[in-house]
Amino acid sequence: MAEYQIRRCDRQLEGGIHPETHKDLSTTEPCVFVDDPKRLVFPIHFSGGGPGEALVAVGDTVSQGTPIIKCQSGIIHVASRAGTVIDITDHAITHPSANQSASIIIEPSGLKEQSYLDPLVWPFDADSLRNRAIEAGILGLGGAGFPSFKKWSDGTQTLIINAAECEPYLTADDTLMRIDTHSMIRGACMLSRTLDIKTIVIGIEDNKPEALEAIEDALKESRSDCFFDIVLLDTKYPSGSERHLVWLTLGIEVPTGSRSVELGVIVHNPGTLAALSRAIDGKPITDRIVTLTGEALKAPKNVIAPIGTPINHLIEATDTSPSSLTSITVGGPMMGYAVTEFTAGITKTTNCLLARDVEIPPESPCIRCGACATVCPIRLQPQQMVFALKGGSLDLAVHEGLGDCIECAACNAVCPSHIPLAEWFRLGRFEVRDQANEQRLASEARERFEARNARLERIAQEQEAKRAARKAKTADALEKARKAREQTA
Amino acid sequence: MIKRPDYPPRDTALVMRMVLIALIPGIVAMTVFFGPGVLFNLTAAILTAIVSEALCLRLRQRELKPRLIDLSAVLTGVLIALALPQAAPWWLVIAASAASVTLGKHLYGGLGQNPVNPAMLGYALMLISAPVAMTTLWINPLTTPDFLTAWSAFLGHSSDAVTGATTLDLYKTEFRALTATEASRNPLFTQAHLGFIYGYEWVALAYLAGGLWLIYQRVITWHTPVGLLTTLLVISAFFSFDPDTATPVWVHLIAGAGIFAAFFILTDPVSGATSPKGRLWFAIGVGILTYLIRTHGQYPDAIAFAVLLMNFAAPMIDHYTRPRIMGREASVKGPGGQS
Amino acid sequence: MTEALLTVGAGVLGLSFIGLLGGALLQYASKAFKVDGNPLVDSIDALLPQTQCGQCGHPGCKPYAEAIANGEAINRCPPGGQETVDRLANLLGVESLPLDADETTADQDLVAVIIEEECIGCTKCIQACPVDAIIGAAKLMHTVIVDDCTGCDLCVDPCPVDCIDMVPRPKAPDYWMPQPPNVISSDRFGQIGMQHG
Fold this sequence. Notes:
heterotrimer; A: 35% helix; C: Alpha-Beta Plaits; two-stranded antiparallel ribbon; two-stranded antiparallel sheet; 5 helices; 4 strands; elongated
């Protein structure tokens, strides 16, 4: 039995909101597998892990687990089902940009052909684990899609399992912790053992008693020598934001501009750890749990779906006709984004499809009520930032702390004037990123320009010096010759 | 256990409606002690505010409906009506209300754009333009007028029997020559139910009740009322070492617009400071200025001027009272940007 | 008479003393707070896009920055666009001017691309590139390092076989930008207000 303790979090999240959670909508039904869809869509550049390149060509036959995309970060995405690559073309993608992007389309054959990796046998070192995570395509399955292996640095002291799942409606992590508890615990233990982590913290909101019970049971059976510190958090959005979770569970405030990794703390989603556990056994990520929920769906539930499954196939899995919906929210109601092209396939970061009818009332002018500032978990002044952004003054917004915004959209939820603050902040943060990039390029250009000028000048000087030397030499030689002539004469 | 609402109600119109609801106890108490003139003032001010709002929106080529149904104009009308003398003639009420909405609000771009509190701007304007009417037409709660007297006062024929200066004003004028004991023999004090000032005490209590409800509902925060009332209390208590010359502490708190302003005027989000700490400083500033002007200035009550002055300081207060951003060493201070 | 003289004298002396004191202070300040280089030129240079294209009539951005510091017009930088003009105006505290450029040349993010089959390896473009963004050797094919190219256009004219094209800068395949929310700058309903930016 692994040692563990359950304690209530003694810190209070400043700001934040208590939205209606609506979680029981999707947890009352058991989690089921969906039938294989007719086609699977894998965006080459937007599957997570950065822009990628296709490893297969049209007409290729693939097995479940065949690498099909290699990303810039090294991450490899595999085919989630055996089948044939029928096309590589621009296709609608599950992404907030709502753009079309190059995608690999696979038609599943229905065969059970698998090409998995060899199991990793203990003892293995951190590098083999990193390689395995790359080959198995392990990304942060919570939604951010950050390549997990990049977090695994030596000197890590604490692993936090982010089981808060504070977004309303979402129950994918909750479901995973109920049905796949052992994999999650095993993944966490393997990672901790490899990186020599002593403490594993599980931050879980107190609205998931079933998951908590499952974890306890699993820990009683586990033979891990890690210490599990289970922290019960108040149900409050956004307690599951990485920064806030680290603060709530450990009391560490991650300084602006750094990541918790730099402080020896890594945070992983339960799904990521479960996937890691399977990857050690040789099975790359081919499926994930997706919450299908919202009042507009007839039979909301959690499903296990192959990566790449088109959204409309999943909508049908809830006995709902896709044509009855005009748009679906990917992710939760707070941080999710709308997708209107239901042919797009889910990616590894698609944790929830939310269908509901919400009418956003028209925006009215800001009355500076300060509600947004009250709920901002980072203690920003959103009303000032949005004022600056609407006026086109990025500098001013950055001065107010735009760079610290976590885009949790708590401000949106409370704004009595229905101002889309979080959308502004997201746009602003992208513009800041672009501007920084431009500035970096400009300063590089300046350096090269100055280096070139210096080089040209140096060359000119050298030539001048050479010419002078040559002149002196010639004069010298002439002088010598003259002297010799004089002597002979 | 009743759960306190989590965050402010999600609609500007709802916020306005809740403030209006919170004002009802105060309006009832005012009507009971100061007569039906309060209701005449309210009606005239609300109607004028709505008409002015509509007119301004039309002139500015804005859509009428969203701005009329959000009740912001109605609220301005109610606030100015409650601030005016209860026996004010109709033209004073209409002029004050129209000035509040047009000069106080739409001149700067309408809802959310006004740098100063519209109701207080209208009030101050009237105080300067019609000082006599604004200082002498207050009802003495001991002589609450009947309907007809109030109506004729509204039409401009006020009777000296029922009107006069406010209690605060009395301390600047009549009571100046009296000792504290002599002043306390005034029937206003001897007949008071709660031991403070007859009538005024109930009105203050009613406003307090409405204001506390707003805090409970998270429409306003505690910072503003606590800041203002504590400051008034502390300063007036400090300077009341000679009771014969000083205005008593509770007169400062109850007799003027203190409590009404603390919960309903200073809490105007648009023109006040926004951060919690800023709201505290804003209210403290208003408290200090109010005491100074009440004691050393020309006017008997000074909330309006104090609020207007602090309104202009609000952006600066906001610049220096930002909370510390999570993950940073210190809070951001001062204005940003290059221009 | 003496009294008047005294008064005047005291005044003169007093004022002289204040003047001397002020002068000494200024002298001290200029020594104590001396800044190396011209900080204004550097802050102007920081706002310029560093394309080194010479379209302003100066051989590079730094020389133009120096010229601006000496009073030249701030609107001669087409690659920087109106945005740069506005920022310069803001920095220098002067009125902004409209950009002095054709619509077509302004504000387009271009890079040079060498059509490699046609390149004869003359190295003329390499010599022209102000930022060393072209590599190659004599009689061998040249190519442009796209990430380093500032789109200055200076390599196009020297090419004897006209094998250099200016094309829009390629974006990373996963580049994207969120849509700006609808802007209502005030309460003007039913009408989208100013454009963002």
